[in-house]
Amino acid sequence: MLNEKVAGLLNAQVNKEFYSAYLYLAFSNYFSEEGLDGFSNWYRIQAQEERDHAMLFVQYMQNNDARVTFNAIEKPEFSAEKHIDVLNAGLKHERHVTGLINNIYGTAYEVKDFRTMQFLDWFVKEQGEEETKANDLIRKMELFGSDPKSLYLLDQEMAARTYAAPALTL
Ligand code: FEO
User: Fold this and answer.
1) Number of alpha helices (DSSP H) and beta strands (DSSP E) in the chain
2) I need a surface site. Which of 6, 21, 77, 127 has the fewest CB within 10 A?
3) Residue 146's domain is classified under what CATH number?
Protein backbone atom coordinates (compact mmCIF):
# COMPACT_ATOMS: atom_id res chain seq x y z
CA MET A 1 0.00 0.00 0.00
CA LEU A 2 1.15 3.49 -0.76
CA ASN A 3 1.51 5.98 2.05
CA GLU A 4 -1.69 8.04 2.25
CA LYS A 5 0.00 11.40 1.78
CA VAL A 6 2.08 10.15 -1.16
CA ALA A 7 -1.03 8.61 -2.76
CA GLY A 8 -2.89 11.91 -2.33
CA LEU A 9 -0.12 13.85 -4.06
CA LEU A 10 0.11 11.30 -6.88
CA ASN A 11 -3.63 11.57 -7.35
CA ALA A 12 -3.43 15.35 -7.45
CA GLN A 13 -0.65 15.07 -10.04
CA VAL A 14 -2.96 13.11 -12.37
CA ASN A 15 -5.17 16.18 -12.44
CA LYS A 16 -2.22 18.57 -12.87
CA GLU A 17 -0.91 16.61 -15.85
CA PHE A 18 -4.32 16.63 -17.52
CA TYR A 19 -4.47 20.34 -16.79
CA SER A 20 -1.08 20.71 -18.51
CA ALA A 21 -2.53 18.95 -21.55
CA TYR A 22 -5.47 21.37 -21.48
CA LEU A 23 -3.16 24.36 -21.17
CA TYR A 24 -1.00 23.28 -24.09
CA LEU A 25 -4.05 22.55 -26.21
CA ALA A 26 -5.18 26.11 -25.46
CA PHE A 27 -1.74 27.29 -26.64
CA SER A 28 -2.21 25.17 -29.77
CA ASN A 29 -5.58 26.83 -30.38
CA TYR A 30 -4.03 30.26 -29.92
CA PHE A 31 -1.31 29.64 -32.50
CA SER A 32 -3.78 28.07 -34.90
CA GLU A 33 -5.83 31.28 -34.72
CA GLU A 34 -2.64 33.29 -35.26
CA GLY A 35 -1.91 31.35 -38.45
CA LEU A 36 1.21 29.71 -37.02
CA ASP A 37 0.35 26.08 -37.69
CA GLY A 38 3.83 24.83 -36.83
CA PHE A 39 3.62 26.25 -33.30
CA SER A 40 0.10 24.91 -33.07
CA ASN A 41 1.42 21.45 -33.98
CA TRP A 42 4.24 21.71 -31.46
CA TYR A 43 1.88 22.46 -28.59
CA ARG A 44 -0.63 19.84 -29.71
CA ILE A 45 2.13 17.25 -29.40
CA GLN A 46 3.16 18.74 -26.08
CA ALA A 47 -0.43 18.22 -24.93
CA GLN A 48 -0.24 14.58 -26.00
CA GLU A 49 2.89 14.15 -23.89
CA GLU A 50 1.11 15.63 -20.91
CA ARG A 51 -1.77 13.23 -21.35
CA ASP A 52 0.81 10.42 -21.37
CA HIS A 53 2.22 11.75 -18.11
CA ALA A 54 -1.25 11.71 -16.55
CA MET A 55 -1.77 8.14 -17.73
CA LEU A 56 1.56 7.06 -16.23
CA PHE A 57 0.49 8.40 -12.83
CA VAL A 58 -2.85 6.59 -13.17
CA GLN A 59 -1.08 3.38 -14.15
CA TYR A 60 1.38 3.63 -11.28
CA MET A 61 -1.45 4.10 -8.79
CA GLN A 62 -3.42 1.21 -10.27
CA ASN A 63 -0.32 -1.01 -10.12
CA ASN A 64 0.00 -0.18 -6.43
CA ASP A 65 -3.67 -0.69 -5.56
CA ALA A 66 -4.20 2.98 -4.81
CA ARG A 67 -7.60 4.47 -5.55
CA VAL A 68 -7.57 7.07 -8.30
CA THR A 69 -10.11 9.87 -8.00
CA PHE A 70 -10.77 12.15 -10.92
CA ASN A 71 -11.51 15.75 -10.05
CA ALA A 72 -12.62 18.60 -12.30
CA ILE A 73 -9.86 19.93 -14.53
CA GLU A 74 -9.37 23.67 -14.18
CA LYS A 75 -10.03 25.93 -17.12
CA PRO A 76 -6.73 26.95 -18.71
CA GLU A 77 -6.15 30.69 -18.39
CA PHE A 78 -3.40 32.71 -19.98
CA SER A 79 -3.15 36.11 -21.55
CA ALA A 80 -1.07 36.79 -24.63
CA GLU A 81 -0.48 40.13 -26.26
CA LYS A 82 2.52 38.76 -28.13
CA HIS A 83 3.50 35.27 -29.25
CA ILE A 84 6.35 35.15 -26.78
CA ASP A 85 3.94 35.65 -23.88
CA VAL A 86 2.60 32.16 -24.55
CA LEU A 87 6.09 30.69 -24.58
CA ASN A 88 6.89 32.41 -21.30
CA ALA A 89 3.65 31.09 -19.79
CA GLY A 90 4.77 27.61 -20.87
CA LEU A 91 8.11 27.92 -19.11
CA LYS A 92 6.47 29.30 -15.98
CA HIS A 93 4.08 26.37 -15.99
CA GLU A 94 6.87 23.80 -16.40
CA ARG A 95 8.75 25.34 -13.47
CA HIS A 96 5.59 25.02 -11.42
CA VAL A 97 5.24 21.35 -12.42
CA THR A 98 8.88 20.71 -11.50
CA GLY A 99 8.06 22.06 -8.05
CA LEU A 100 5.09 19.69 -7.78
CA ILE A 101 7.18 16.67 -8.79
CA ASN A 102 9.91 17.65 -6.35
CA ASN A 103 7.32 17.95 -3.61
CA ILE A 104 6.02 14.41 -4.23
CA TYR A 105 9.60 13.17 -4.35
CA GLY A 106 10.40 14.86 -1.06
CA THR A 107 7.33 13.38 0.59
CA ALA A 108 8.15 9.89 -0.72
CA TYR A 109 11.69 10.34 0.63
CA GLU A 110 10.38 11.30 4.08
CA VAL A 111 8.38 8.06 4.36
CA LYS A 112 11.09 5.93 2.71
CA ASP A 113 8.87 5.12 -0.26
CA PHE A 114 11.74 4.14 -2.54
CA ARG A 115 9.46 2.64 -5.16
CA THR A 116 7.70 5.95 -5.73
CA MET A 117 11.03 7.75 -5.76
CA GLN A 118 12.24 5.40 -8.47
CA PHE A 119 9.04 5.96 -10.45
CA LEU A 120 9.50 9.72 -10.13
CA ASP A 121 13.13 9.64 -11.26
CA TRP A 122 11.95 9.61 -14.86
CA PHE A 123 9.76 12.66 -14.23
CA VAL A 124 12.61 14.56 -12.55
CA LYS A 125 14.69 14.06 -15.70
CA GLU A 126 11.73 14.82 -17.94
CA GLN A 127 11.08 18.11 -16.13
CA GLY A 128 14.68 19.15 -16.71
CA GLU A 129 14.20 18.48 -20.41
CA GLU A 130 10.85 20.27 -20.49
CA GLU A 131 12.33 23.40 -18.96
CA THR A 132 15.24 23.29 -21.40
CA LYS A 133 12.86 22.94 -24.35
CA ALA A 134 10.73 25.83 -23.13
CA ASN A 135 13.83 28.00 -22.61
CA ASP A 136 15.21 27.16 -26.07
CA LEU A 137 11.93 28.13 -27.65
CA ILE A 138 11.92 31.50 -25.89
CA ARG A 139 15.48 32.17 -27.05
CA LYS A 140 14.58 31.35 -30.65
CA MET A 141 11.51 33.54 -30.53
CA GLU A 142 13.53 36.41 -29.03
CA LEU A 143 16.11 36.06 -31.81
CA PHE A 144 13.85 35.49 -34.80
CA GLY A 145 10.25 36.21 -33.82
CA SER A 146 10.17 39.85 -34.90
CA ASP A 147 11.21 39.14 -38.50
CA PRO A 148 8.33 37.68 -40.56
CA LYS A 149 10.58 35.58 -42.80
CA SER A 150 12.47 34.12 -39.85
CA LEU A 151 9.22 33.52 -38.00
CA TYR A 152 7.94 31.62 -41.03
CA LEU A 153 11.04 29.39 -41.00
CA LEU A 154 10.76 28.88 -37.25
CA ASP A 155 7.14 27.89 -37.70
CA GLN A 156 8.25 25.34 -40.32
CA GLU A 157 10.71 23.93 -37.80
CA MET A 158 7.96 23.63 -35.22
CA ALA A 159 5.78 21.84 -37.76
CA ALA A 160 8.37 19.07 -37.99
CA ARG A 161 7.84 17.90 -34.41
CA THR A 162 6.33 14.42 -34.29
CA TYR A 163 4.82 12.52 -31.41
CA ALA A 164 6.86 9.88 -29.62
CA ALA A 165 5.45 7.76 -26.82
CA PRO A 166 7.16 8.21 -23.44
CA ALA A 167 10.27 6.13 -22.80
CA LEU A 168 8.87 5.05 -19.44
CA THR A 169 6.80 1.87 -19.30
CA LEU A 170 5.21 0.46 -16.15
FE1 FEO B 1 4.09 16.73 -17.46
FE2 FEO B 1 5.30 19.21 -18.96
O3 FEO B 1 5.32 18.07 -17.50
Assistant:
1) 5, 0
2) 77
3) 1.20.1260.10
Q: What is the pTM of this model?
A: 0.96
* DSSP one-letter string for 83-114: HHHHHHHHHHHHHHHHHHHHHHHHHHHHTT-H
Q: How far is ligand 1, taken at its centre, from the CA of residue 64, in Å?
A: 22
**Cα 39 to the chain's mean position, in Å?**
16
Residue 113 included in any domain: yes
In angstroms, what is the span from residue 147 Cα to ligand 1's centroid? Answer: 30
Please name the residue whose Cα sits nearest to atom 1 of ligand 1: 50
Classify residue 17: in a domain, yes or no.
Answer: yes
Task: Give the C-alpha separation, 27 to 87, whole Å.
Answer: 9
